[in-house]
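job 3f2a | input accepted
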Amino acid sequence: MAPSFAVRGSSGAAPTKFNRAHARSVLTRQITGVLLILGLASCVSYGPAPKPLGEIADRFAARSASWTAAVQTCQRLAPSAPCDPTRPDRLLLFAMLVENNPDVAAARAHLHSVEAAAVAARAPAGPTLTLSTEYAKASSDPSPWLFGAALDIPLDTGGRRTARIASADLAVNVARYELAEAIWTARMGLVRALDEVSTAMGQLTLASNLIALQERRMQAMDRRVNAGEATRAELERARSDLADARRRDAAATAMREAGKVQVAKALGLAAANLPASLPEGGAFGVDVHVLLPTAQQRSRALLARADLLKTMVAYDQAEADLRGEVAKQYPAISVGPGFTWERGLVKLPFNVGLVLPPLDLNRRNIRAAEARRSEAGAALEAAYASAVGSVDAAYAEITAARRALADFRKLDLPIAQRLAVQADREIAAGAIDRTDWAAAQAGLLIAQLAEIDAITRVVVANAALEDALRRPLSGPETRIEGNSR
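job 3f2a | predicted structure (485 res):
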């Protein structure tokens, strides 16, 4: 009876223990399944957003000037400015540029991208979950199954985390300076294009008058040749002067159209959708001698240049990279808590993991990072020297251009004006004929065209100085609040 009782006892107890273990394993799988379902439910789903090139082309062709958005941006930038869409000035076009320019939009999108990346850089690395199971049937074990779960949690602290976050924040600063540079580059393109349009309009007015005058001279010379009072060579010279006037008119027309295309490009519009009325550009017909900044304002403007600040951030990035390489000479630590159910026994293991540095304690990478930092420092000094050189060159060109304009207005232009006035008196007195009078008047128009060229040189030099200082020196943009003065 004893052996029979032992067999019944063992055969009766084992199923009871196995059923409890089986129930635990079923419950564990159910809880794991629920956690997985909840985790999957909280995941972000992917939504496709294709950008067919044909649709982009259609939208760009249909894009027109949005004065509403431009006025809002203008009022935000310069509350004291009129921002009148019925009489758009350069500031209102600048506001439209900020809203519409594709390069500015791309730089703004890049800034949003790196800002999101900087937020993501602050998130700690996710743990690693390892699930294990084992089946080992033995007569003495109450259950043949083993279930286990282990986590590997990296400790996201110390120099590695600091360097990662610093790199992400520096990337945000770089993107901000790139956005500022994109806005400034587009603004200078708009200013230079408006200058071209304004110069071309002034040249066209004089060129059309010159063509009309040379045509009258040509007709008078032709009559003189037919009457035997002039030679064929004089007629050909008159014809050549007429051809030169027409060439000037054609060149001015081409400059005007090219300038309008560049204005449309800066505003992010197709040339066909450009607003009908454009403000005058660079001060044709008015004083072009803008007030030059003082030495202190010049130094302050240089230190605020976005491209120099971007180069400085590149040096800071090299510094952060070096700090990260120094941190890598120490082991990276991770902890691994776990849970194991082994044939009726509950175990709670705990592990500590070390990611060891290279055998040279990362000295080679540290030296490479130090070299990159030295390179970034040299690049920063070179960028500053280049900026100073561009400012000095712009000042020299402004001085030379202003002197050339003053000399022309003092010497050449008065001579042409006196000759034209004298020709008016002589033709009224009958001392000269129509051809000689037309030659004197044409000389005055040619001198005025040369004056426009001298004014244009000053305007271009002013724009070059603005570009070197990265700040407007004249125009309605000086009303922007926060503009350094």
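job 3f2a | The first helix runs from residue 2 to 41.
job 3f2a | closed
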